[in-house]
Amino acid sequence: MDPAVSYPTRMDEFDPDYCRIVDSAIKEDQLLLPDRILANIRNLESIVQEFAVDQLVHSLQTATRAERAGESVDVVVGALCHDMAKTLSNANHDAVAGEMVRPYLDDDTAWMVANHQDFQGRHYYHVIGLDPEAREQYRGHPAFDLTARFADDYDQLSFDPGYESLPLEHFVPMVREVFSRTPSTVL
Known about the structure:
It is a single chain. The protein is mainly alpha-helical. The protein has one domain (30-179): Hypothetical protein af1432, CATH 1.10.3210. Helix content is 51%, strand content 0%. The chain has helices at 16-30, 33-43, 55-68, 73-81, 93-101, 107-120, 144-155, 168-179. The longest helix is centred in the N-terminal third of the chain and has 15 residues, at 16-30. The radius of gyration is 19 Å and the shape is elongated.
C-alpha cells in the first residue's frame, strides 16, 4: 500500500483518481494470473477421491488426449483446467471452472468447461440414479458436439494409471499464452 494514497473504506467513497490507481493495480495483478492458474492445477495432485489417479493426473491425461487429437490451444487448455475448481469444492465445479476460464478462452470452449459434467454423466449417471442423457437438454447449443467429444473421447477415459500423458511443463507455454490474453470481461 502506498502511504501517499488515502484509501477509501467504502466503495461509495471511490473517486476517479482512486479508480485509476485500482485499475493500474489490477493490470499488474493480471500478470500473475498464469502462475496462479498453474499453482491451482498443481494443487489438484492432492485430490484423489478414490479414483485410480489423482485429479492432476486426470487433468494431464485429458489435456494430452485433446492435444493428440489435434484440438485447438483453447480446447487443450480448457481440458487441463476443466476440473481446477475441485480445489475449492466438487459441487458445481464445472460451472465454477467455466466462469474462471470464460474471459480467456473462446466461447465454445468456456461453455464446454462449464457444462462438461452433464455430458460426462452419460458414462456413469445411471449408476448414481441420475439421467445419463442429461446432455440432451443442451442439444442445439453451438458447443454441443465439442462438449460431447470432450466428455466421450478425453475426459471420461482419463483415469488410467497406465496412460502416458504429457507432463504439466509441456502445457505451461499454452497456459501462459491463454491466461496472458486481455480478458473479455473486466470487473
